[in-house]
């Protein structure tokens, strides 16, 4: 039976009762099968699993979709129960930021936090790393599972754990895709039929990139040809987010808007020698 707590005091008590190795899966709720894959992985690598459900205002800019972000706590708790999650921490904004956000001490990402998502959404990674480090301190996990869909976030969290000596094993969970190839995201529910059809240029671009010796050009051509997509970036970087190598394994990263919905995706590619 899943124990559900909303305050830090309740969490500390419930956490102390968890046996063995503990894995945490931080989420913003609106759980889907992509999260389910994270929970399953967490259960494989740990004896006890904590899921956090918190829509973190610190990682949204004023013009972004904080108010509109889907909140489905009852369904989220049902999924956690079905997946055998031991403990859910679902705090309020006031519980997490009792002194407000003005003057808050934050965790600032290094230069890798300024590219790609960080360039398009200034302050995003400060918001993410600050809340993730708070959630780590509160849940005291041995391991944490993050989806590869947010590839840059995963890299930033890994880097924070190393740089701040947090001693937590960060486990990457492969991206879960819908039947048509679209990466699962809580934001997919916002897509109209036409927007969803346009969004499918993203998995098509990935497929073309993976079959091409020039993944960036192959993906770019498909994305730019789709009038229903507003491409924010398409980039190839090294797997650690550094400059792309001249040849060999690398990562393709894409962000694009279909209507008002911003989608991101990424996949492994090989430069000069398709996989
Ligand atoms: O990936 C997310 O859902 C969020 O960025 C996270 C890691 C839960 C932090 O709010």
Automatic annotation (TrEMBL):
GO terms (BP aspect): pantothenate biosynthetic process
GO cellular component, one term: cytosol
Reaction(s) this enzyme catalyzes, per UniProt: (R)-pantoate + beta-alanine + ATP = (R)-pantothenate + AMP + diphosphate + H(+)
InterPro entries hit by this protein: Cyt_trans-like, Pantoate_ligase, Pantoate_ligase_C, Rossmann-like_a/b/a_fold
Keywords: ATP-binding, Cytoplasm, Ligase, Nucleotide-binding, Pantothenate biosynthesis
Active-site residues per Swiss-Prot or TrEMBL entry: 35
Residues at which ATP binds: 28-35, 147-150, 184-187
Chain sites annotated for binding beta-alanine: 59
Alphabetized GO MF terms: ATP binding; pantoate-beta-alanine ligase activity
Superkingdom of origin organism: Bacteria
HAMAP family for this protein: PanC
UniProt function note: Catalyzes the condensation of pantoate with beta-alanine in an ATP-dependent reaction via a pantoyl-adenylate intermediate.
Protein's UniProt name: Pantothenate synthetase
Species per Swiss-Prot/TrEMBL record: Glycomyces terrestris
